[in-house]
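Subject: Interface between my chains keeps coming out wrong

I've been trying for a while to get a sensible model of this assembly. When I model each chain on its own everything looks fine, but I need the whole thing in one frame so I can look at the contacts. Pasting all components below, labels as-is. Any help appreciated, I'm running out of ideas.
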Amino acid sequence: MDLSLKIWRQKNKNEKGSMQDYSIKNIEPDMSFLEMLDVLNQQLISGGEEPVAFDHDCREGICGSCSLVINGAPHGPHKSTTTCQLHMRKFKSGDTIYIEPFRGSAFPIIKDLIVDRSSFDRIQQAGGYVSVNTSGNTVDANATPIPKPNADEAFKSAACIGCGACVAACKNSSAMLFVGAKVSQYAQLPQGKVERTERVKNMVVQMDKEGFGNCTNTGACEAHCPKEISLDNIVKLNREYLNSKIK
Amino acid sequence: MALSGIFLMIFLLQHLAINLTSLIPDNGETFNTISHFMGYNPIVQFVLQPILIFGVCFHFVMGFILEYQNRKARVQKYILHKTRSSWISRNMIISGLVILAFLILHFDDFWLPEINDKYINPVLPDPEKYFFHLQEQFYNQTYRTIFYCISFVLLGLHLNHGLASSFQSVGVSSANKHILKVAANVYSITITVGFISIAIFHYFIH
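Reply #2:
Try treating it as a single job with all components included. I did that and got this:
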């Protein structure tokens, strides 16, 4: 496959970026999108140019490291697929592919296609956990009976890998789907219920501090989420938040 | 935002119900009776009307604040952005601005003359005037009728997204998502078709 690439290049967070054109030849259809970028980088390095910086880690669709807005869609045009699991057979030889970083004021660009998603870490630190007493009397989590529907719902929410595609897809750069998934996940479980009131308050406060936009229920986050996290998580987040304000 | 939206949606239903009485072939008697009651009942005038005006203003101000915050949340736009969401859900501010323009005209057509007659240049109450005034505004008034109809279509689209969205925002059970979608469709079509029918009826029939 021969492709034309338009890639966002930006030296650092302070300098202005722009789209640069690249041509790449002999790409195998069975290569992943990131492998195609690896080939491009090899080509750039051989030519004495700066390689394109992009995030990646597990390349198995579970770590949430990869990002990229490919042809206008976070993680590319294929539904329920992370960039690392997107294959080049989804494109045709001769295609022009636009590659941009996730955009949002709370996700500042570090370099090229790499954005700083530590705002998600800070939201998690604000309440996205279950406190444990490690005095020696800690009960094994698996020893607590949990109704199957609750376990299933919690598991669905826990599928969120925190990649930030919801923010990238949302016209408001809202992080409500991410926060909703984390809040819902714990609110379904007996271990998480203890701190549910404080958790939702603290996580929402942190989310607002980070500069994410507001949810206007466009549903773009759900449609572009590679892990199919449902919009229902935002409804649950709103309910948890209202309940925490009443209590 | 969601609560004021739900309040305004309830108001719109009663507004439509009252206006539909202008289609009853009784020479406007029912419409005049209800309009006169609404215009001179102290509870409606001095309790409900101020709440309504506050609700309208609050909804618009919150809409603008949300739009400002949301624009600030993404300063650098995408070169290419293809999103899987409906046009109206992404452009509530546009439909909202058209509704605001419509409301200014609507207030000028109906509400300001009423306030003038009551408080600025007071005249004796005329229980027969409402139907005549309504006909006067639409009969053969092509541009006004077209603008009203376009506004009602945008209002319908605004309500279609707004209804489901507002209930989601107040955390109404996700199990009712499908019911909410159906309710949003029924409600928005009723409001749009209802108000358009009234405008077109009075455009043609005097």
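Reply #3:
Confirming on my end. Chain B has a mean pLDDT of 93.
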